[in-house]
Amino acid sequence: MLRMRTPIRLIVASFVVFGLVATACSDESDTTPATGSAIAGAVVVFAASSLTEAFTEMADAFAADHPDVNLTFNFAGSGDLFTQISEGAPADVFVSADAANMTRLTDAALNAGAPVTIARNTFEIIVEPGNPQAITGLTDLVDPNLIVVLCADTVPCGKGAQQVLANAGITLTPKSLEDKVKGVVTKVTAGEADAGIVFVTDVNAAGNTAEGVQIPAAVNVISEYPAVITKDAPNPAAAQAFVEFVAGPAGQAILTTYGFLAP
Q1: Which fold has domain 121-222?
Q2: CA–CA distance from 82 to each of 98, 116, 152, 163 (Å)?
Q3: What percentage of the chain has pLDDT greater than the value 70?
């Protein structure tokens, strides 16, 4: 078989073309948004305090997929978190314990993209271990001899508790109003209060330091937990990765173990 020899000039030209293509591909990859293992940097998550335990555990699971991302959480009442963001506090992600505070954020155009509901929650009466006051339902909470504490109505746990009481036709004057749900939990578990109304997940998170008394579904309410990347997020790529993780199978499995309902 006759073999044809390729001219040297053609070989050189081929290498030049190949080099230009390779350079172009390299330049293109450099401008492609980071994904997967390329996600890196600090991410600050402003999240409702009722997510404290679940998100703390989730941070370890997220780190396994994104070891170069440094998660920092700011847990507080959803209303307080909105105020902080609106006043310029640096946050990559906002997760509210209700739709109302998320609406405040989106109405102020402080979001990047549409919020994603990552979970739902409902309410329960929290009492001391062993339920020493023998509280069986909402009607027992009107006993003047009981010390009952609630969240302020400026935060989701307070709004929800007031709606539950209204649904049940009960008027209640609490001994104190807390600025976040963990404040109610702390007062009951420390023996400073006999009962309170909190999210079911907060009773679960309290472990053996508290017990829960169920609220009938007919008067109970369900609160949604939307998450969104903020407009001025310093690290939007990594923030997106975190939101997707929370909304994905691994994140949902963790939320379920803490008693959160599916979105």
Answers
A1: D-Maltodextrin-Binding Protein; domain 2 (3.40.190)
A2: 12, 16, 16, 22
A3: 86
